[in-house]
Amino acid sequence: IRSELHKVKRIHYSITGPGADQPPVGLFTITRNTGHLYVTQELDREKQDKYMVKATDADEPDSDNSNIRYRISSQEPEEPSPSVFVINPVTGVITVNAEALDRQKYPQYTLLVEAADMAGEGLTEQVKVIITVSANNNNPSVFTQPARFQVLEQDP
Description:
Blueprint: E1 28-30, E2 37-39, E3 69-76, E4 85-87, E5 94-96, E6 108-116, E7 124-132
Antiparallel strand pairs: 1-2, 3-6, 4-5, 6-7
Organism: Xenoophorus captivus
Protein name: Cadherin domain-containing protein
Keywords: Calcium, Membrane, Repeat
């Protein structure tokens, strides 16, 4: 998220927490002068189901000026629906709002996420979030032949 102060002051961006400077270190990197955030490798939900990258405001804590709210202002492509992803307005956590993603039809989504202070009514900044669908298993398991199982009794 870019600060409006970048026009008059030199701003330095940093990222901390799991995936940045805590294990797994280096999963996320940020360009210090631009604030561009990068994911350096595929994320595996089975290894870790979520990462928190939270915007902060330098205003007085617990005041309206530091009360940040998030929203998705656009999604490309808008298929299979314009709301494939949803964002928690308080935490900024993005989740899938669809039964399944189809990597073959839609391998990548671009979200424009907006963060605003004053509980969503103040100054706003936008960031582009690119989501790449890298694994897809939306087919249920089926037996192609009749299955037979044998349970053997064991001696005590």
